[in-house]
Amino acid sequence: MTEKTPPPPSEPSRHDRRERVRAAINGFPIHPETLLATDYLNHFNELVMLLEMLPTMPELASDLQAWWPMSYPEHFENSGLSYGELANEAYRCAPLRYRCAFDSTVTQTNRVALKSVKHACALARADIPEQAEGNAADASQVLRDLITQLGSIINGGASIVDQRSIDDLLNGG
User: Fold this and answer.
1) What is d(CA 110, CA 150) in angstroms, rounded to the nearest whole number?
2) Residue 36 placed within a domain
3) 3-state SS assignment for residue 6
4) How many Cβ atoms sit within 10 Å of the Cβ of residue 99?
5) Fewer Cβ in 10 A, N or C end of the chain?
6) Most confidently modeled of 27-36, 115-124, 128-137?
7) Across the chain, what does the average pLDDT equal?
8) Beta-carbon contacts of residue 169 (< 8 Å; ≥ 6 apart)
9) With helix as H, strand as E and coil as C, how does 102-137 read?
10) pLDDT at 113 over 60
11) 77: in domain
């Protein structure tokens, strides 16, 4: 008689993993429905702050040029936050209706951010303070609107960003 080996343990289902994560997030700033954390938005808030300060503090251009899009997982891997690993596991388990909207909006935000950095640094180098201030204000407002939309998704809702403002900024308008 041959001895049968037991089947390998199965991977927990997405639903099971999601429920385990929900149980673990108690006390951490991760939304229990979306499984996303608002701490990620600090990455973009830092950029807005630099853009707004650049016209009066051109020495910040190198800091602004050093800014680079960071994915949600990268942010939490590099954050040093005690719940970074949990935030990334929660992100992997996030319901697709939130995760897809979130990832799409992050992609759009990164496009606007990179264009804004490039344009702001060019204006700072050209020493055109009036244009630099106007550009910083326009770019900051569009980015703030996108950050608000991301925050809304993270918190289980949605908000509308004026697509024309985003298109105008990306097209140099």
Assistant:
1) 12
2) yes
3) coil
4) 18
5) N
6) 27-36
7) 87
8) 112, 115, 116, 138, 139, 142
9) HHHHHHHHHHHHHHHHHHHHHHHHHCCHHHHHHHHH
10) yes
11) yes
Length of the chain: 173
pLDDT in tens, 46-100: 999 999 998 888 889 899 999 999 999 999 999 999 999 999 999 999 999 999 9
Q: pTM value?
A: 0.83
What tokens were used for 126? 């050209």
Number of domains in the chain: 1
Q: Which domain does 99 fall in, by range? A: 14-170
Q: pLDDT grade, residue 169 (50/70/90)?
A: low
Structure tokens at 113: 């951010």
In a domain, 1, yes or no: no
**Alpha helices of 25-162 — where are they, by DSSP H?**
42-53, 61-66, 72-78, 84-93, 96-126, 129-154
- Classify residue 31 by its DSSP letter: -
**And the tokens for 21?**
């994560």
